[in-house]
Design goal:
Helices cover about 85% and strands about 0% of the residues. By secondary structure, the protein is mostly helical. The protein has one domain. α3 crosses α9. The longest helix has about 35 residues. The chain starts with 12 loop residues before the first helix and ends with a helix.
Amino acid sequence: MGHLNRDLTGGNIGKQLISLTWPMLFGMLGMVIFNLVDTYFLGKMGVKPLAAIGFVFPVIMFLNGISQGIGIGTSSLISRNVIAAGKEQVRTMATSALILGVLVVIVFAAAGLLTIRPLFTFLGAGEDILEYIYDYMSVWYLGLPFVVLPMVGNNIVRATGDTFTPGMIMLTSAVINTILDPLLIFGYGPFPQMGVKGAALATVIGRSVSMVIILIILIKREKIITLHPGSLKKIAGVWKKVFYIAGPATLGLLITPLSLAVITRIVSSYGKEAVAAFGVASRVEMFALMVISALGSVMIIFMGQNISRNQFSRILKALSYASRFSVSWGGLVFVLLLLLAVPIASVFTNDQQVISIARQYFLIIGASYGFQGLVMLSTAAYNGINKPYPSVFFITIRTMGLFVPLALLGSALIGLNGVMWAGFTANILVGIASYTFLRRMVGKIRDS
């Protein structure tokens, strides 16, 4: 296990956060590319395929949230034990987490394939959009193993202190997806013209490559996977520890796409152009917050190691660095959106109504991205210190407690812009509250 035992409980905090975060950007960039590339090429097919992607986005986020939750639980557990625990114990933890991922795949892939039409009909998709949705999701669900297992595997490697390898694997997968997307969607050369199905198949192929690579690294290089993880009781014990973090983390991750599904339902009353615009804006938003998301993943590792050694001064200093960066980055992104909102939206579609709505989204919700980043960093830090429940609490307040109710009210009072102002308000209020409470909690743990 060559990359194990990278000690983050000593040394320059700023340099450590930077050295761990920048490789993570490759992985985050890969995730964003997956979404942006599909959106870009399907946008060339017209508004209906673009609207279909807008509908499937919350569901894909839902399923990604489950696998990410298991990954977060695994990363938190291993990072809190990787320095002090024995290698066999770490191997048991990692292997048990992968087994858990396999079981999750079986359940949700089967359930998803059986509920495509009723689910998206409930979300407001009309028959003309539903066919595109079915084409995409029928392929995507079959490829779910290639989505879940790499997420869990990448989190295992990150927890050992190696953030570069997972980042490069995810970027490689995204590049493959980018190359295959136009070939399979439009049928260039020897490739068949598959339309929306081609976009889904390109994603599945890209993710399958990442799964093969990460398994080779876990087995051959790190030697962190074992064929003998121990008794069922021992595996179940690991699952219990993983679920202590993964349960609330998954719930928090699932609440976001559930709220987005409700928001999509509200937005759908304004037409397919509005749904398409929100789909475009959501993917650009992922790109805009990519750096903060990468830093959040790093905070889980950093907090986990330092809480295990009671290094509270380092934890508080890291939180200060992270919060200042989030607000600064959010401000920079907003300035760029002020200048480039229309050109950015125009990359994905030439429909002027879609562009106009997306621009308004950027100018309203974009002003709150720095505070949305505070929510992301705070919830990651809670998981890192083995306190997952405040994380899910603040995510719930931001989405179902504020965003959805205010969106319903705003839509009734001032129309589609009211939905956007609801997102702005929720980000500001919860960003401040979650970070303030986190610092107080760390102080209480230190003084107890």
